[in-house]
Amino acid sequence: VQLQASGGGLVQAGGSLRLSCAASVRTFGSYRMGWFRQAPGKEREFVAGINWSDSSTAYADAVKGRFTISRDNAKNTVYLQMNSLKPEDTAVYYCAAGSKFKQGYGYWGQGTLVTVSS
User: Fold this and answer.
1) Segment 40-85, tens digit of pLDDT
2) In this structure, how many other beta carbons lie within 10 angstroms of the beta carbon of residue 10?
3) Residue 82 CA to its chain's centroid (Å)
């Protein structure tokens, strides 16, 4: 599984960005997808996840109500819509994939940088 994230950039506080992650896999619908982020000097943290079957979602408390994860199985792509961005959202954002036959996320993309200016 190869993952290619895109959509990062520089945005002012209060603005919006949409990240995309394209997966090169034949059975995209069999993978849970997630977004993680790592800010400078901090550990990587979970941001949002979406299930493979019913597209149920989960969010970190810090982004609930502001970020929305979605997937398009026909395009092998997962999205992260980020609204009301804050400077503390500045980080490298990584998409990840996990097979429904295993726990966790076993595949990672290269990351895309999001910088939110105050």
Assistant:
1) 999 999 999 999 877 899 999 999 999 999 999 999 999 999 999 9
2) 12
3) 10
